[in-house]
């Protein structure tokens, strides 16, 4: 049996206010072609299909159009989709009865029976091969909130213990259903211990890091664990069968060097045969100029040297400009925009930093009692000194005082 593993589409995401519908559509069109070319039996979508819990009508239409096209292009394809932490569980579940007609099963919520017990059977689904025979059983577990998991008595973190117990129950149910030669595949949207996060675009699931799951929850009877949430494609430790496929496109400038991909997963009976990365072509490039923050004059020279061919606005590269400042530069944006005139790029972000000549974070830090005695101008002065290593100029202090005295807009 052959699976394709993907996750973290984040349909509807904007990059610094630029709409990314075009890029997502390029990915979905490519994915349709890949499903056919790879002769996939099933597609696993491991959460965060939308960027937020209230996606636009255009984003929802984009998803459902893709599902209909996938059914037409590969009539025997099974599609399994679980909700991520960005998704609304109810919104994912709502079209389920209709989507089943397209060979798509969705799991947004962990449902309970009339007596309050977790309905484990709803989390376990068969996956069929191209002959129509059941070749695997899928533990379709969505992102789990503390209220979703069973209560486990004893020591340790109750949330982590509840997640492990839920997977164990789902696994036991799958083992009771499977026949010889059938594999068990797990899905999850979670943060595993040792998983590498993106610096800018991944939302912490639970404050404090207690949500990080040990690899042991996916035991040896699970042939493959298809995970979502982390945008960097990676396997967990030495466990070749536990993998994040990563996001299909960079969701922030910190992900500009990620190798975006879907994973082709081949099963041989009940075992994993191999996992192969299938690179996703990048429809629109993200540029960081310069590669490291540099003084403004050097930055302007590099910007003026950019040369990109004319392209529609939606296909032009996104640009992050990285400037090293010794002092505030009031005309910074105007100078950068002038250097980019006619360059056929989209200025998405200006990142400024400073090589501080003195001071430290500890010097700027004060106790709550001390803070209560400081005037706003004192706080401004301390922060200026912390960032730039010198006292704020008189004109800066005067401008700040004018802001404090300004009447609020009505």
UniProtKB/TrEMBL annotation:
NCBIfam families: sbcd. Residues 285-387 form the Nuclease SbcCD subunit D C-terminal domain. The gene is sbcD. Belongs to the SbcD family. SbcCD cleaves DNA hairpin structures. These structures can inhibit DNA replication and are intermediates in certain DNA recombination reactions. The complex acts as a 3'->5' double strand exonuclease that can open hairpins. It also has a 5' single-strand endonuclease activity. This is Nuclease SbcCD subunit D. Keywords: DNA recombination, DNA replication, Endonuclease, Exonuclease, Hydrolase, Nuclease. One of its GO terms (biological process) is DNA recombination.
């Amino acid at each position: 049996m052959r699976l394709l593993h993907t996750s973290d589409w984040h349909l509807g995401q904007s990059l610094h206010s630029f709409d990314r519908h075009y890029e997502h559509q390029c990915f979905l069109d490519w994915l349709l072609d890949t499903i056919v070319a790879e002769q996939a039996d099933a597609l696993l979508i491991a959460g965060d299909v939308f960027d937020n819990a209230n996606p636009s009508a255009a984003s929802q239409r984009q998803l459902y159009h893709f599902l209909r096209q996938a059914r037409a292009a590969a009539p025997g394809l099974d599609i399994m989709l679980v909700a991520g932490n960005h998704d609304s569980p109810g919104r994912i579940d709502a079209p389920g009865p209709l989507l089943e007609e397209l060979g798509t099963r969705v799991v947004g919520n962990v449902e309970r029976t009339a007596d309050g017990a977790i309905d484990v059977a709803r989390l376990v689904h068969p996956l069929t091969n191209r002959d129509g025979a059941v070749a695997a059983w899928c533990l379709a577990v969505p992102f789990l909130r503390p209220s979703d998991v069973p209560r486990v008595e004893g020591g340790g973190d109750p949330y982590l213990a509840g997640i492990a117990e839920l997977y164990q129950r789902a696994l036991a149910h799958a083992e009771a259903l499977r026949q010889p030669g059938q594999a068990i595949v797990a899905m999850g949207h979670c943060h595993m211990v040792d998983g590498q996060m993106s610096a800018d675009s991944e939302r912490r699931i639970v404050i404090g890091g207690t949500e990080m799951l040990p690899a042991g929850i996916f035991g040896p009877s699970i042939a493959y664990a298809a995970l979502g949430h982390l945008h960097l494609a990676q396997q967990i430790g030495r466990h070749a069968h536990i993998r994040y496929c990563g996001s299909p496109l960079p969701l922030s400038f910190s992900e500009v060097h990620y190798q975006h991909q879907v994973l082709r997963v081949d099963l041989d009976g009940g075992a994993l045969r191999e996992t192969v990365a299938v690179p996703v072509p990048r429809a629109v490039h993200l540029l960081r100029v310069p590669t490291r923050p540099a003084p403004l004059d050097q930055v302007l020279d590099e910007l003026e040297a950019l040369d990109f061919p004319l392209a529609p606005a939606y296909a032009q590269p996104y640009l992050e400009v990285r400037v090293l400042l010794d002092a505030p530069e009031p005309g910074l944006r105007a100078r950068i925009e002038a250097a980019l005139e006619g360059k056929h790029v989209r200025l998405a972000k200006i990142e400024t930093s400073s090589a501080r000549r003195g001071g430290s974070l500890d010097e700027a830090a004060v106790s709550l009692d001390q803070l209560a005695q400081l005037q706003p101008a004192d706080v401004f002065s301390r922060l200026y000194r912390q960032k730039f290593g010198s006292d704020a100029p008189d004109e800066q202090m005067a401008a700040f005082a004018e802001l404090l005295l300004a009447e609020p807009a009505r």
